[in-house]
Amino acid sequence: MAFATNTEAEDPERARPLVCATLSALVAAVPPAAAPAAMALVVPALLSRAASEEGQAVYRETSARLLELASADAAAFRAVVAGLSDPQRAFLDEVVRAGRQAAGPADASADEDERPAIALKMDFGG
User: Fold this and answer.
1) Where are the alpha helices (DSSP H) in the chain?
2) In the chain, what is the greatest distance between 2 CA atoms, to the nearest angstrom?
3) What is the dihedral of CA 26, 32, 35, 37, to 10 degrees?
4) Which of 18, 37, 75, 119 has its CA 20 to 30 A from that of 29?
5) How do residues 3-13 score in pLDDT, each as one tens digit?
6) Could you tell me the residue ranges of all domains in the chain?
7) Rounded to whole angstroms, how far apart are CA atoms 118 and 56?
8) CB of 26 within 8 A of CB of 42?
9) Whether the Cβ atoms of residue 62 and residue 95 lie closer than 8 Å to each other
10) All residues at 6 or more sequence positions from 4 whose CB lies less than 8 Å from its CB, including other chains
């Protein structure tokens, strides 16, 4: 986790995104009883990396990882998000929104009246 979150350390091979993807995949691979604990470690680590290494590419990647985690175990994701502080939840919201905007018009066929993807996150906080 330290390598993924300490962005001041050199990363010449650009392994940090791979480490974050692996950590996210790990959550889906652990037994269901261990998923909440794994999620509670990975979500803050992803947010920490996004906070220390700002930019569209990092936000897009972090957004994808967060959405993967939410789909892997929605209940555990909701519990972790509910336990975040208000500033952390606001930052998560910002990262997901920026990541989705940076992804471009991939959802061009989506109905404009649909709830934005970020509204999904807001439901997790309750």
Assistant:
1) 2-5, 16-29, 35-52, 56-72, 74-83, 86-102, 117-124
2) 44
3) -130
4) 119
5) 666 667 777 77
6) 2-124
7) 16
8) yes
9) yes
10) 16, 19, 20, 23, 45, 46, 49
